[in-house]
Structures are given as C-alpha cells and as structure tokens.
Amino acid sequence: PVTDGSRELHSLCAQLEFLLQFDLKEKRSFFGQRKDYWDFLCQGLARCRQEHEGIHFVTSLDKLKTPVGRGRAFLRYCLVHRQLAESLQLCLLDPESLCEWYYARSPFLSPKQREEILGSLYELDGVTFHLAL
C-alpha cells in the first residue's frame, strides 16, 4: 500500500494538483477570495449528486481554511476511497461548466486528453492508499 511517507504519493498529488490548476480561469467568491479547483469540484459534484461523501468530509474539517487545502484533502480522501476517477469524471461531464472554469489549453477540454487522464486515474483504483485523512 501507498502511505504518507511514499515519495511517489507526493509526486502524484503534485501532478494531480498541477493538472487541476492548469489553465484554470481566475474566479473570485463574493467576498473576493480566489476560487480554486476545490470550487470547481464542489460545483461539478453538486450538479451530479445529492451529496458527495468526500465533499462532506472535507467541509467538516475545521483546520482547513483555504480552497487549496480543501482540494488537497479531497484528493487524498478520493485516493483512499478509490473515488478519484469517478468523482473527476462526474465533474467533467458538463462542457459548459468546463468552459466556465478552464481556458482552451486545459487538457480537460480535449476529449482525447480527458479520456487518457481518466483512464490513468481509473487504473489508480487498483492501488491501495493508506493515508492520514
């Protein structure tokens, strides 16, 4: 199993975060706080499901104050529960939402690249992650 001490884990999480932030449009909340991929994931999952367990878990953690911190916790939760590919796929279903959140260079806007990314993430479902949440 992959644990918190694994060098590969840190590399994987950094790459996932880079991918989710790449060509992300700058958006701000009503109070001026910069939105991040966490907000994109919340919006995408809210559109598809009643409530995602990972979103509920992360929002219940009082220590997390920033969208980036919440996004990182969500990625870890999804890795542990083998839900990352499915969760991201649900967020990528709506082309209008993708265009609202990402500029044209984002790999999420390319059907071929999106398929490759999701295929790789579904392969991660076969890996066991034992991470502190």
From TrEMBL:
UniProt name for this protein: RUN and FYVE domain-containing protein 4
Coiled-coil blocks: none
Gene3D superfamilies to which the protein is assigned, alphabetical: 1.20.58.900
Pfam families in UniProt: RUN
Function per UniProt: ARL8 effector that promotes the coupling of endolysosomes to dynein-dynactin for retrograde transport along microtubules. Acts by binding both GTP-bound ARL8 and dynein-dynactin. In nonneuronal cells, promotes concentration of endolysosomes in the juxtanuclear area. In hippocampal neurons, drives retrograde transport of endolysosomes from the axon to the soma. Positive regulator of macroautophagy in dendritic cells. Increases autophagic flux, probably by stimulating both autophagosome formation and facilitating tethering with lysosomes.
Boundaries of every RUN domain copy: 3-133
GO molecular function: zinc ion binding
One GO BP: cellular response to interleukin-4
Cell compartments where the protein resides: Cytoplasmic vesicle, Autophagosome; Lysosome
GO cellular component terms, semicolon-separated: autophagosome; late endosome; lysosome
Top-level taxonomic group: Eukaryota
